Amino acid sequence: MQAEMRLHVELETEELVRGGMPLEEARRQAAIAFGGLQRVTEDALDEGSVRWLDGARRDVRIAMRALLRQKTFAITATLAMALAIAVNTTMFSMLDGMINPTVGVREPERVFYIQYFGDPRHKVDFAASQRAIDATVGTRDGYTGISGNGNVSTAAERGGHVAAARVARVRENFFPTLGVTPLAGRLTPGSDLASSTSSIVISARLRAALFNETEASVGASIIVDGETYTVIGVVERFEAFDPLDYDAWTFAPPNVVLSGRLVRLQTGTTLEQTQQRLDVLAAQLALAASEPTKDTRFYLKPVLRQFHANRFHYALIGSGLAILLVACTNLANLQLARGLTRGAELAVRSSLGASRRQIVTQLVLECGLLSAVALGLALLFAVVGNAVLRATIPPTVGEFVVQPHGSWRMVAVASLAAVVCLLAIGLLPAIRVSRIDLNALLKGRAGTGAHQSNRRLYGLLVVVQIALTLPLVCAAALLSREAARTADMQSLVHDWLGYDPTPLVHVGLTVPKATTPGQMISLADKTDEVVSRARTVPGVVDAAIVGIGYTMNSALTVDDPDGALREVAAPIWRYNVVSVGYFKTFGLPFLAGHGFEEGRFELPLGIVDARTAAYLWPRSVATGRLIKMARAHTDSVSFRVVGVVGDLLTPEARDRQAAVSLSRVGSVYRLITARDSIPLFRRPQSLQLVVRTTGNPAAVAELLRQRLRPVSASTPLVTPYTDYLGIPRLHVTSRFFAAIFTTFAALALGLSLLGVYAIVAQSVIDRQREVAVRIALGATSKSIVYTLIREGNVLVLAGVALGLFLTKETVGWIAQFLQEEELYNAPFFAAMCIALFAITVAAALLPAIRATRLEPMQVLRAD
Amino acid sequence: MPPRTDLLQGSLDLLILKSLLLGPLHGWGVSKRIRQLSREVLEINQGSLYPALYRLEDRGWIEAEWGTSPEGRKVKVYTLTLAGRAQYRTEQEQWRLFAGAVARVLAAT
C-alpha cells in the first residue's frame, strides 16, 4: 500500500518539475500536498478489505517487539511450554501405540475367536461342532484355527543356535485368512500332508536368534521340540494380536481339532449376524446331543488385544497433565506479573484510545506467538522423546508401556495442549490485566501495598504448583528406591525370595511325545536318569527335578498325634513334587527333622515350611505327622512329614509375606515316589530341573546342555535362575519407570521453583519502597528476609498440605511397582514434604536476600 | 489558476466512479483526471483519496490490479466493475436531485 502512495508522490513531483519547479521544491510540495504517509496508510487500512490482514500483521509486529524486549521471559516461557507439551505428547503417543497398535493384519478388528461355552459334562461333540461351524460360518466368513501351548516356551534349534520359542499349530489357511504379509518366503504349506506338517513359519525374532544376517532362512531346516521342520516363511511377531504373538507356527493335519477357532467377518457381515448363525448352530448341536439349548453357546471374542488402561496409565496421564498444569500456572503467574509491571505501558495505550479488546488481543497474541513457537519445539522434543523412549523401553516391560508411535493424532494432541497453554497463560491473565484500575496501578507503584490482591492470586497459583509437584516427587522417590532395591540381590534374597538364586541354573527338558496312545513313563526313573547325569558335570553341587501337584477341593487332611484325622480348609491349589536334592540345591536350612534321603521310597514323604507346620499342628511337632492334599474321604495318597524347612527371609519379610498371602498354608513338598508317572501325549512336554553350581552358572551351561541332551527330546534350555525368575527384567523395568517419573518430577519441581522464585522476586519489586523505608529505619537483613518470605511460607505449606492429599489419592496408581507397605510409609512421605518445603523456601530466599542489599536512598529518590 | 475548492461531503465516491468510468487509472491518475475534468477547480485531498479507493474496492465497485506503466513503473490500476457502474448511476441521480434542490433554493427570490 505504501508503495502505491510513494508512487503517487513521485508522479506528483514529476508533474511539478514539468511545470518548472526545481526538483527539491517539487518533492517538498508533493509531500506536503499528500500529507503524512503513515496516517494516510492507516486511514486507508481502516477502510479497505486488507484492514484485517494488515492490522493483524501490525499486531504481530507489536507483539514480537514486546516479546523481544523481554527475551528472558520469552525464552523461559517457550521452553517451559514446549517441555510440558512434549511430555504430554510423548505420553500420548505411547498410549496411542496401545490403543491403536500396529499388528500387520488386514482389519484386525474383524477377527474373532469363537469360544464354546457349555457344561463340560454335556455330550456335545467338540469335533462335530468344528465341522458344523466350518460348514455354516466358514462358507460366508473366513474361518481358520490355531492352537497355542499357553506361555510355555520350547526349544527351537539350528546348528549350534538354541532359542526359547512360543509355538502354535495352525490351519493351512491361517495366514491368508488373517491377511498377513510375509517378510520372506510364503505362508501356506504345500498341498500334500507330509510337506504340510513338516513346514514351519517363523517370526523375525526367532529368525534373528537362529540365523546370521547373511544366511537364508527360507528353505532351511530347524528343530522345534525335537521335530525337524523346513522354514517356508518369516513374519513379524505382534504382541498386541494374539494369533501372531508367537515365534513359530506349524501346520496341523486336517483331522486335528485346534482349540482356537478364528473367524474373520467378511465385509458386509455384521457381528450380530454371525452371532445369530452361531446361536442357531449351538441350538442344533445341543438338540442333537439331547442337551438343554440354553447351556450351549458360542461367543465371539475379539482377538485384537483390548487395551485396558490400568492405574499405572492414569499415573502416566496424570503426571503429564500435572506438568502441563504446573507449566501453565507458572507462566500464567509470570504473565500476570509481567502484565502488571507493564501497567504503565498498557495505561498509556488505553489513554490513547486502545480499547480493552485491543489490549487483550495484544497480550493474547504475544502468548499465541509463544505457543506457536513452543508447539514447534514441542513436536521436535516429542519426536526426540519418542526416539529416546523407544530406545530405552525394556523389551519385557509387559503391557504397561509400548513403543510410542508418531501419527497425526500426536500433532493434534500437541496442538490441543498448546491451545490449553494459550488459554491458560494468555487469555485469562490478559483479561485480568486489562481490567486494571489505573488509580490502583499508580498507587501500587507508589509502594503502598496495593498489590496485595495480586499477590493473593499469585499465591493461589503457587499453592497449585506445589500441590501438583509433591505427588510427582513422591512417586519418583518411591520408584527410585524400588529400583535400588531390585538391584540389590541380598535384599531380594532376604525380603522376597528366601533363597539365593545366583548359583542356580534352570534347565528346561523335553519328554518325548507318545508313540502309542496312553503311554506313560516313570517319573522316578526319569528323575534318576536326569539328576545323575547333571551331578556328573564339573561345577555342579546338586540338582533336583521340580514339579507341581494339585490339591482337590481346596482342603487338606492332617492327622494329630492322637491319630485323629482333621480336615483343614485351605485355599491352596498346588504343592511341590520334588526330587531328593531339592533343599540342598536351593540351600534351604532345616528347622526340625531332616531332608529327603537318597533312595527309592514306596511310602511318600513330605516336608513343610515353618509357617505351614505352625498352622497345621499348632500344639504338636510337625515331623512324623501325615498330610493328604485332599479331603479325608478321597483316595488321594497321604505322605509323612519328615522335616520342617526354613528360609533366608528376614522375620519382617516373612511376616509381610504371610500378611499378603491368601492362605495360612505356605509351601508343602512331596518327594517323587516310584508310583509317580508322566503320561505322554501327542505333543512333547517339558520337565523342570534346577541345578546348583559352585559359583558361576554361565560356566556350566554349555556342559549341562551337552550332558543332558541324550535324556531330552530336544536340546535342553539352560537359563541362569535369576533370568528364569525375571530379576534382571524386573530391575530394568523398575529402573525404567523410576527414570520416567524422575524426569517428570524434575520438570515439575524445576518449574515450581522457577514460579516461586519469580513470585518472590516480583513481590520484592512491588514492595521495594517499603523495604527501602524499613532498611532506612534500621531493619536488620533477617527481619527483611523474614517479612518477604513469611507470606510465601504459608503458601508453600498450604501447597504441601494439598499435595499430600493428592499424593494419598494417587500413590495407588503406581502401587503395582511397589511393596505394599511403602504406600503407608508415613515417615517417608513426611520427609518428602519437608524436603519439598525446604527446597521451595530456598528458592524464595534468593530474591529475598537480594532485597536486603537495596540501597534505600536510590530507591526512594527514584520514586 | 482558478481557486481550488474542497470537495463537498459525499461527492468523492461519485467523482472517483466517474473518473474510472472513462477508463482504468492508478491513484494519482484518478486525482489528476478529477482535477483536469473540473478544470483545476476540484482538488482531492490525498488523505481522502486512498481511503476512498480502498473503501470502494472493499464494496466491490472498483477492482485493483498491480501492473506496469508505459514508463516501466509498477503501478496499481483501478477499474470500474459492473456493480460500480450501477452505483455510479445511482449516485449520479442522487447528486442531480441534490444539486437541483440546492439550485432551486438559491434561485428563490
In short, what is this structure?
The complex is a heterodimer of chains A (863) and B (109). Chain A is α+β, with helices and mostly antiparallel strands and 863 residues long.
Q: In percent, how much strand structure appears in the residues of chain B? A: 5-15%
Low confidence ranges of chain A: 444-450
Give Rg of chain B in angstroms: 15 Å
Sheet with most strands of chain A: 12 strands, mixed
Output mean pLDDT of chain B.
83
- Structural class of the secondary structure composition of chain A? alpha+beta
Which keywords apply here?
heterodimer; A: 863 residues; alpha+beta; twelve-stranded mixed sheet; 28 helices; globular; B: 109 residues; three-stranded antiparallel sheet; 4 helices
Describe the fold and architecture.
Chain A has 28 helices and 26 strands. The two termini of chain A are 45 Å apart. Chain B has helices at residues 12-21, 27-37, 46-58, 82-107, and strands at residues 25-26, 62-68, 74-80. With 109 residues, chain B is α+β, with helices and mostly antiparallel strands. In chain B, 55% of the residues lie in helices and 15% in strands. Chain B has a 3-stranded antiparallel β-sheet. Chain B contains 4 helices and 3 strands. Classes of the chains: A alpha+beta (863), B alpha+beta (109).
